[in-house]
Amino acid sequence: MTAHAHRLRDITPDELHEMLKEHQVTLIDVREPDEFAAARIHGALLAPLSSFDPLTLPQDPTQPIVLQCGSGKRSAVAAAHCANADVAVAGHLAGGIAAWMRAGLRTIMLDPATGKVVDRQ
Hints:
- The chain has a single domain, classed as Rhodanese-like domain (Oxidized Rhodanese, domain 1).
- The chain has 4 helices and 8 strands.
- The protein is an alpha/beta fold.
- The longest helix has 12 residues, at 73-84.
- The strands form 2 sheets. The chain has a 5-stranded parallel beta sheet. A 3-stranded antiparallel beta sheet has the order 3-7-8.
């Protein structure tokens, strides 16, 4: 990590939920496509860590980037890549989608029994 990188801000599931509801951030999910298909947060854009390029992320100053993964580890790695590329990141979802789901927040999921996409509250 470069010297100009600052500590990554942990955003709680409830904080992120409010930010998304108010259209204040762009949520980037850095998990792999199969994980994204199985469960994802409404409005998240997929940018898998395996092929992550910070320079391809949407750059809208009115919509700061928040990173998200399964548990918070990969989003922290992606944030380091962003810092090295001078791409600003507002923070990451602390605990990842696992924490989001534990908080009971709305998630799009793939029903393993039917293969259908369901919207779980």
